[in-house]
Specification:
Elements (H helix, E strand, L loop, with lengths): L1 H23 L4 H22 L9 H27 L2 H8 L2 H13 L5 H18 L11 H32 L1
Helix pairs in contact: 2-3, 3-7, 4-7, 5-7
Length: 178
Amino acid sequence: MAVFGFGVCLYSLSAVLIKIQMQAYDITAQELLYWISLFVLLCFYLSARAHHQDILSIPSNMQFPLFMRVLLGFTSDVFLFLAFMYTSYSKAICIFFTNPLMIPLFAKCMLNEPVLKVDILAIVIGFVGMLMIAQPFKQIESSDEDSIKEQRFETEMFGMTLALIAAVTGAITVVYVR
């Protein structure tokens, strides 16, 4: 349990540091993903070596699910980092962390797991709460012209859509882990 808590803390810290790096050093989402991927690849390799695991011995029945987990997890990160470029960090993360609300629906479709009425009610309440926090349709307050307000609104909506796509692909990734 302590390792899980430590992992959650590190993940939260990494998300904050990613946003800071993207703003402070003018790094694109693609550059950031490249360097993060190299670092994570090195960490996984060293972990496999330390535990004496053969990283190339993947059972044939696990190859496709593993491929999908990697592909969808990477896609989720790409869309989340792109969302950081178009909307605020808090909105992007708030929308991204709705992925646990989507998992039961995807589990029902992909794994035929039961979804109770109580689960559906909780999911709806969770999405309503997310809408109250993110306020996607709130008008941008500014003394600028209407065209600038509209452009900012469209940019925010685009960023929030990217964050929602990241949440969906993240939820599907978790279902593939199962």
